[in-house]
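Technical note accompanying the year-one report. For the benefit of new consortium partners, we illustrate the data format agreed upon in the data management plan: each record pairs a sequence with a structure-token string. No post-processing was applied to the example shown here.
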Amino acid sequence: GSEMCIRDRAKPLLDDVAVVSFSSDQYSLEALAQANPFLGMQTGHNRQGVIGGIAAPVVPPIEDRVSLKNMIKGYTHSGAYQLNMEDQLGSIEVGKKADMVVLSDNLFEVNRYELYKVKVETTLLEGDVVFNLH
């Protein structure tokens, strides 16, 4: 979850060119309310969780904030690599499964403290629309 993620120091591993994956897996029903990959990205990117919609204190060292690019990669390509499925999943390329989402906002244009507000508008599974918000 977001609280666990910020205690860990992923940036030194990324700096050493390790493959680091992230997830929104939760361990309790209470934490399930925060099972949001965008909240996880925001937490790792800022080293700061969100409790009840309010930013928690920054977990030092602040220099270990993970870039948004690396947070996104950790939720996509690195996860596929960890599953030994990077030839099928994790990036948009010809020949891959075309599992992807269309978001309400561009993650790189959203305020770093409001990433958790981004919504999935459409989900494609092997190229077929399986969810459409509208």
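Partners are asked to follow this layout when depositing records. DSSP finds six helices and five strands in the chain.
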